[in-house]
Structure formats: structure tokens, C-alpha cells
Amino acid sequence: MTAPGTEIAQLALSHGGMAWSQARRSAELAALPLDPCAVPLRRARGLALAEPLLAGLALPGFDTAAMDGYAVCGPGPWHVIGRALAGCSPSVPALGPGQAVEIATGAQVLPGTTAVLPYERAQRTGASVSGPDEPGRHIRRRGEECAEGREVLSAGTLVTPAALGLAASVGCDTLMVHRRPGVALLVTGDEVVRHGIPPVGRVRDALGPLLPGLVDWLGGIAQPPTYLPDGRAPLSSALARSRGSVDVIAVCGASSRGPADHLRPVLRELGAEVLVDGVACRPGHPQLLARLPGGGALVVGLPGNPYAALAAALTLLAPVLGRLSGRIPRPPEHGVLTAPVRRRPHETRLLPVTVVSGRATPVGHDRPGLLWGAAAADALAVLPPTDDAEAGRVELLALPR
Ligand SMILES: Nc1nc2c(c(=O)[nH]1)N[C@H]1C(S)=C(S)[C@@H](COP(=O)(O)OP(=O)(O)OC[C@H]3O[C@@H](n4cnc5c(N)ncnc54)[C@H](O)[C@@H]3O)O[C@H]1N2
Ligand code: MOO
């Protein structure tokens, strides 16, 4: 595992911020997976396994019937001597040649059973049953699907509902997982209004509603947003307050170079190490990543413009939270743009697209202050810098549904 910071130092800064792909890599390297802890299955969904999941028992755990019908011994016809139901002791201990019991799917097959004959293929007359003789048919043998001790999921796998069911099937009550990184959300700006129609000169907060769900989807757990007026002192004390209680602090707004944009000066005052100072992408170029002193929390600076903030969160916050929460990074997804799109000569463009069968169609409405396009999109297409308008294959960043 690379120590945080070592490779970052080798990553070059380009004019107008770090290249987009380097910025993502830097964000990934800035974090290490949080310590493992054991949690009960009911609380493990959405967390990443900190160690491989091993089968605590063979599957199936005993020789069992795969169909409802008759457990038979040898060639027919057979004399029906009893019943075997799932979870119950059978009414006879074993089968001898020419004998059968009625059996339910999931019941343990008796010693001597050579096949299970489904009802649909059986002819029953009184206590006699006949049908095809198919040795081994419809018996699931102990361990044939999974041997005891076998690794069924690797470390880093996201615990999905199916993974929880699998864990229970192999006898687990708790899982070793990485805890979710805690994220403080600091929403800055005197102009930001939290309810209703804002008066002229003010703007309705879009990021307080957007970020908790995004953080959850990215593997973190967000604290309720804290709203801060513009000014160095409120931001500085909010960062100082949050640093001990969370792993990541996302600051919304104040990321640019204006008179009310205090994030960079405050981080300097606090002695933070700036790891990414602007990214060569549109929207979202003023974003930043820093580490508070003393191995403290990571700070992700998101632009105030809401679509720019979303694009920045997928650029820097996503890899940070993915790494802290111990998730295995997924290989990038790709799609083919349905029409040529104008690119930018020195900056990666992040464009909202709908994706159908791998075909990516721009949805428009993608100005930095507007979330309309992103809200209608399935993904953001990543368009690397070039002078031309191009169609073709592009990387896609999925958006949370
Ligand atoms: N001289 C320069 N000015 C700006 C540059 C630049 O490079 N040089 N970059 C522009 C870009 S690009 C962006 S993005 C913004 C980033 O600004 P800040 O992060 O400092 O954010 P603010 O100035 O506070 O706000 C920008 C914009 O977004 C609105 N806003 C802020 N917070 C929210 C919120 N929670 N919900 C909805 N809307 C919000 C705010 O009212 C502004 O309209 O800087 C450019 N300027
Ligand atoms: O790049 Mo800004 O982040 O476009 O709005």
C-alpha cells in the first residue's frame, strides 16, 4: 500500500490546475482505508469487506433433494415407505433397494437414496411408484456448490443485499468491514437561503439537499450541513471544530479568488497541506484537496456553483471516500457519444449524458450554476482536452440514482 502523499509529490501541476485524471489519482492516494471493525449483518449493507469472506460451512450443508417428489433407491418400481420433509426427522432411517419415500425440496436425503424422482415424472398407484431410473438426478450433494473454508468474496467487495444473504448462508453473524468515513458539510455564503423562494440577490441552497445522498452513495456518512456566513473566522472555527470528529470536511463555496472566497487563506493559516490546488476541468476548476495538520481530516473544497460542485465532488470527493471506506475501485465505464461535442483545449470537460445501451447522449442544461442537466442524466461524460469537436468512446462517471 502506498503511503499517502508519496506519489502525489510526483504528480505535476499543469497550468490552470492539476490535470483531471492526476487529480483523481492524487485524491485516491491521499487516503488509506479506515480501520476494520466487526458489525452485525443488519448494519453492514453498503460497507466494504475488510477481509475476505470465507464459507463457514459447505453448501449445501448436507445431501438434499432439489425437487419435490420421491427419494428412491435403485431401479423402480418402488414401494413408498414414508416421508421426508425439510427440517423434520424422516419417518424411516434409510432406504433399501426398491424402496422410496416422499420427499420435499430441501429435505435431507436418506442413506441409500440413489435419485429424486419429481412428482411430474412419477406414476403413483397405491403404495407403489414408478418412473425413469436416473441415478444421481435431483440430489444436491454436500459441498458441491461451495466447499467449507472457500473464499466467496474478496476484501474490498461492497456488501450488497445479495452479499448479506450469502454471508448468512455461509454461517456469518458479523462481518469485518471498514467503517464509513464521517463527512462534515460546511455550506458557506451570505446569499444562501435554505427555504422557499429567495429574495432578489439571494440564492436557494442546492448543495445542502444534494450532498448527503451523494456522500452516502460514495460510501460516507454525512453530518447535517452547517451553514456559515462569509468570513474567515466562521470558516476557520468550523474547520477547527470539525477536524477531530470527522474524516473529511467538504466546504461548499469560498473556493475561488474573490473577496469572500476565504477557503485558501484559511487553510494556509491553519497550516494545511494542499494536495490539489485547482483542477484543469470545466466545470469545477477552483476545487481543492487539502489535509489539516497533524494527520487530520481531509478538506475537499467544492465550488459554490451547484453543477460545478457536483462535478468536483465526483472528481475529488468520490476517490477520497472510496479509498477511506476500503472499496475496490471499479474499472472505468465507457460509452460512445452519439454526436461530436466541442471540447476544451486545455481542460477536461464534464458533460451530463443519458446512457442507453452504451450510447451517451448529451442532455444540455449544463451551465456551472444549473443542476438541470445533471438531474436528467445517467452519468457525466469525461471529455479530455483537445482543440476539436469529437464523438467516439468516452469515460463515464455514473451519477447516483
Ligand atoms: N476571478 C475569478 N472568478 C471566478 C473564477 C475564477 O477562476 N476567477 N472561477 C469561477 C468559477 S468557475 C466558479 S465555479 C466560482 C466558484 O466560486 P466559489 O466556490 O468561490 O463560490 P461562490 O463565489 O460562493 O459562489 C459561486 C456561485 O454559486 C452560488 N452558490 C454558492 N453556494 C451555493 C449553494 N449552496 N447553493 C446554490 N448556489 C450557491 C453563488 O451564489 C454564486 O452564484 O467562481 C467563479 N469566479
Ligand atoms: O468551473 Mo466553475 O467550477 O465552472 O463553475
UniProtKB/TrEMBL annotation:
Pathway: Cofactor biosynthesis; molybdopterin biosynthesis. Its cofactor is Mg(2+). It catalyses: adenylyl-molybdopterin + molybdate = Mo-molybdopterin + AMP + H(+). Its EC number is 2.10.1.1. Residues 184-323 form the MoaB/Mog domain. Pfam families: MoCF_biosynth, MoeA_C, MoeA_N. It is an enzyme of class 2 (transferase). Gene3D superfamilies: MoaB/Mog-like domain, MoeA, C-terminal, domain IV, Molybdopterin biosynthesis moea protein, domain 2, Molybdopterin biosynthesis moea protein, domain 3. InterPro entries: MoaB/Mog-like_dom_sf, MoaB/Mog_dom, MoeA-like, MoeA_C_domain_IV, MoeA_C_domain_IV_sf, MoeA_linker/N, MoeA_linker/N_sf. Keywords: Magnesium, Metal-binding, Molybdenum, Molybdenum cofactor biosynthesis, Transferase. It comes from the Bacteria. Belongs to the MoeA family. Catalyzes the insertion of molybdate into adenylated molybdopterin with the concomitant release of AMP. This is Molybdopterin molybdenumtransferase.
